[in-house]
Design a protein that fits this description.
The chain has 560 residues and is of the alpha/beta class. The chain is globular, with a radius of gyration of 23 Å.
Length: 560
Amino acid sequence: MKTTVKSDIEIAQESTMKPIVEIAAAIGLEEDDLELFGKYKAKISTEALAKIKTKDSGKIILVTSINPTPAGEGKSTVTVGLGDAFNRIGKKAIIAIREPSLGPTMGIKGGAAGGGYAQVMPMEDINLHFTGDIHAITTANNALAALLDNHIQQGNELKIDQRRIVWKRALDLNDRALRKVIIGLGGPTQGVPREDSFDITVASEIMAVLCLATDLNDLKLRLSRMVVAYNDKKEPVIVGDLQVEGALTLLLKDAIKPNLVQTIEHTPALVHGGPFANIAHGCNSVIATNAAARLADYVITEAGFGADLGAEKFLHIKAKSAGIKPEAVVIVATIRALKMHGGVGKADLAKENIPSLTLGFANLKKHIETIKSFGLPVVVAVNKFITDTADEVKTLLEWCQREDVPVALTEVWEKGGEGGVKLAETLLSVIENEENNFQPLYDASDSLEQKVRTIVQKVYGGKDVELSSKAKKQLDDFEKFGWSNLAICMAKSQYSLSDDPTKLGRPNDFTVKVREFKPSIGAGFIVALTGDVMTMPGLPKKPAALKMDVDEKGNAIGLF
């Protein structure tokens, strides 16, 4: 008899939530510390954040993965299940993850609230509008665009060269038709005609700024530094020149407060911020991570996509900016992704294939080497899928043992926190017994080109980096502007260690081509654009939205 597997939303809707004030009380927060969004969601108030700043910081554990398949490898699911597992074994833990974007939610990848019996709830709200943070960022982004165009219309006192405006409008949906647009058509009263384009909201620098800011004043300062255009002398024009950083901060004054929710097993979770990992830095907010560290003994957080993207950026950008030192790193690996890296096509990933699985180990090995190069202890979490065979699982576990890499079979999708207990216990042993010599792979004083080369060679395993003539000219300009001490944020494909998504496994002897650089001065990094990475993704032929609906009682249908 065939067993029917429940969908994530069915599991979530059958679960019972506790009032959020009870979840808050378990971590020492009172109702007055919260700004309630109904019964099951809340923001932590600015006053409460200030009050807990004096508390000692708990241990931070970072969850990353190998290069994923298009459907993702359950990194958020493992993060949620691991937090539940820590609490099951008597350790006070909080989960800190990103907010889902409507782009992937309604596109192909799905949501980012975990899955199965390792979910944060209310999952429908979290995966849709939640508390309105992303909408606030969209509004602030587009308010800045409107104020910039109005400045030009009203006389252009700053002598902005309208051909060199770099600030884009934003929308939190995948809409390829907005990648290139013409605005201001219709005569002198309709605005100055010019080319423009849209980013998806989570690629907006305002999202990165909000996620790296430490408080409201730091947010305003970072917003004021953002580059929006260049003047007729080719000098940067920043938000502070337009004198609108105060207005933008006003629009974001609530969005900067972290959101408190719960898992199916009632573990507290801070879900806040959501920068894309293959365009921006791919980590939840510094404010949420630091708050979680002061409210619990262990914080389980994640960084988007593989260790070559999210983890590298967590360690080079977020950790440095926030003064964070992770205790250990979990690398999530799945049998299906390893088989894909061993040459198996998407249609055959559910079939047993030990030879291809073994070939795919090369991808996992590179990510392990990368994390160890930062001086951090590492544990492999084998996220089990129902299509995995016993022989495949045994082959992977035995390989990890031969490589002397701590490993744990993880079954949190099916079993919730119980399925992550082995992983939690393995992590505690590693944190207690292994050395932690965390240090970045490059210095702030290195040139921007050298920083890119270091990432390409030490993180991706590539041979070298090749800059376009445009990129070389930009680096010369950036040095004159005093930006050479900033971090690098690589924008590349998540599917490969290289900048070519078709090169799976562990490619070698490749050169990464940087076509251009994008200054994100407010965020504190320079984005290096490689390959054909888009800041406004498109929808697939059959988007997930086709399966979504709502019943007569207002309950979501088809949301994973």
